[in-house]
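Bumping with the actual sequence this time:
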Amino acid sequence: LTRNLLLRNGIGAGKTVVSHYGIDTSGLAEAAERRRPSPTLRVGFVGTLAPHKGCDTLVRAFKMLPPQLDAALAVHGDPDRYPSFADELRELAADEGRISFRGAFSRDELGRVMSELDVLVVPSRWYENAPGVIFEAFAAGMPIVATNLKGMSEFVKHGENGLLFELENAGDLSRQLRRLGEEPGLLDTLRAGISPVKTVAEYADEMEELYAALSRQA
């Protein structure tokens, strides 16, 4: 996404290399091992509770799920950063007992949080530039349901390692979540489609190789 924007503005033609950053995977691989099967479809949101992140779309979509579907939504995020929006979310979810707001958590709790979820939803309504939470979820062996926008759809492949839904379309998002709850084996298929995530060490090695190649051209 960023490369295409630069090229369209006449920047970096023939000189641009895309290198997606690596993440700290410590504690995340263990999250996949700690995750236990559950009859409940455990849906999660992890991120900033702000309008551009689209958590309201997720809440609306979840409320559309049939009441008999055994599912739960856990929203993880600091309500104090955008308090008025957080209040709107709580009001929106007030009549839905399957939705809980868990607040913020420390970095060393990330593995625990990921281990308690089956699928992570990234419902952003703006272009994300390779959001780290997608890589973290993949490192924890968890599929993603994301908005079909560049920056997310470059990594979340529909039917392979996750599912995509139309921008701000709560009905479409609800359909994708319902599939996860009703199609036997779908979650396992998506988990199996997750590729290894680049680590910080691998990213550093990649940068060293790139700078070495550039220095040889100087």
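The tokens above came from a reply further down the thread. Residues 63 and 95 are 9 Å apart (CA to CA).
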